[in-house]
Amino acid sequence: MPLVFTLVNTGASPVTLYLLGREPRADFRVSDAAGRRIWSFLRGQTTVAALRVVPVEPGKGLTFRQVWNQRADSGRPVPPGHYLVHAVLLTDKPEGLASPPGRLRIDR
Amino acid sequence: MVSSRMFRPLFAAGLLVAAASCRDSSNPAGPDAASLSARGAQAGSFADLPSAAELDRQVPGFGGFFLDASGSPTIYLTRPAASRANAEQALAGYLNARGLGVAGLKVLQAHYGWQQLERWQAQATEAAFQSQGAVFVDNDETSNRVRIGVSDLSSMGEVRAAVARSGLPDDAVIIERAQPIQLVSTLQNVVDRPVRAGVQINFPGFLCSVGFNATSGTQKSFVTASHCTTTQGGVESTPYWQPLQSVDGTQIATEVADPVYQRGTGCPHGRKCRYSDASRAAYANGANQALGLIAQTSGANNGSLTITGSFTITSDDCGTTGGCLAVGATVNKVGRTTGWTAGKITNTCVNTGVSGSNIVQLCQTFVSAGVGGGDSGSDVFQITSGSSVKLAGVLWGGDSAGTQFVFSPFGNVTRELGALTTH
What's the pTM value of the predicted model, to 2 decimals? Predict the structure, then answer.
């Protein structure tokens, strides 16, 4: 399941992002219908804690791509059902810059 | 089979960052791509409050606007009955966007118009600040008066007389005691000379924290993370400024030690390794070094970045690889992003893969405590008594949740950077 997270500066002025790490990174997080986190791309990973200063010109942005293999963090395939996907750009704030939820339905 | 729902992009006027959704057409093998849009900071997506100058243009007899103690929108008008409709029109966008509605707008009788108060504020500023006791002069929208703060009672008469001489009517001025306003120095904005551990440093394109000051031979230096250099591993003479080049353009230090990462014995196949993510930068001639001092904030794990004092390094952890602190011991760190955090060591001598790279840091220590982007390089220490501390190592990473940090023990740092005098 390919996941795409795109951010664009839609304003008229450049903005500056303060992003965790040497290279900009985004986490992708999947929750089940009850809101329980079942998978996270960066779960258990250790990231360097430098802060990169990234200017973004109007109309420009960042795109992150990741693939979810429809398995939980445990490695087991997830059952059919509804799921929510969030992407979070890692910044200097603990909550990062989060996308609204994307809804997925796995039929079988 | 997987089905996904596509989302409309989120656009908002003045949005810091918004998003566009798209399909992952670059992956022909994949089914639908779930595209996500960023919510981010949405300040400016609401109608902003018109400026006082704009309200003054649109509303005859405008004397000030504020939200009262109960949150009710309140406006001063010199002619309330005649000008209410103008006020409602001028504020409709702002009030409606907040669900307040123009009907709830409270109108108070103004004695003075805004422009008059602006002129008086300028006159009073010139007059009041002849006294050392003046703290502030405000065109106070909550009282429709010029409000002046003074630091002590003895200054009050002096300021009152000076303001009266400048031509302000006594009724238009409120003079009150006020606490002197101090410049707040934080880990992020302080121009710290001599430079203490824990404060922000800047090298091209990045922000990190000072780890600890150290003398190597006779060279005055500070230690920070290896990845807080232009290239992680290897010396490129990275320049450093504190807190930012744009704030103080005098370079404080230059990278002088940062061993390259090695492959081979003890390092997993296909990876490169070191025992510490640490580098050393030599202070420029004339830059001061506060050997042994770590900037201290008001408390651990309280989120404060305001500097209130200093810790003093009085000892170092052992020089053994992996360090001599046990699982369960409490350690602290001070860094520019999350300030002073403290927690227990959960794992020692962990060979740690660095996400997004082929680097493995050997024999590192994990701590259950807060961390954030920009804390790299921070000092890690144990409090021994009062403000005296034992230096434990250099923080370089953490989990994406910001609840666990990883540091290179002091023994690992000296193993790679050589002997260091820290206090």
Answer: 0.72
